Amino acid sequence: MSSSFLSSFLGALQASLSVLLVILYGVIASQYKLLDGPSAKKISAACVRLFLPALLITKVGSELEAGTGTRYVPILIWAVLYSLVSIGIGLLAVKFLKFPAWVTPAVAFNNTTSLPLLLIESLRSTGILDRLILDGDSTEKAISRAQSYFLVCAIVGNCFTFAIGPRLIDAENAPGESSDDEDEEDADGADDDAAERGSINEGELTSLLPHRVRKAGGRAHRQVFFLGKQNLEKLSPRTQEVLIFLFDFLNAPLLGAVIGAIIGLTPPLHRAFFNDSNDGGFLNAWLTSSLKKIGELFVTLQVVVVGMSLSSSLRKMKRGEDKGLPLLPTAFVMLIRLVVWPLISIAVIWVLATKTDTLQQDPILWFTMMLMPTGPTAMKLIAMAEVNGADEDDKMVISKVLTVSCRDSPKSSGLELETPSLACTIERG
Question: Which pLDDT band holds residue 418 (cuts at 50, 70, 90)?
Answer without folding.
Answer: low
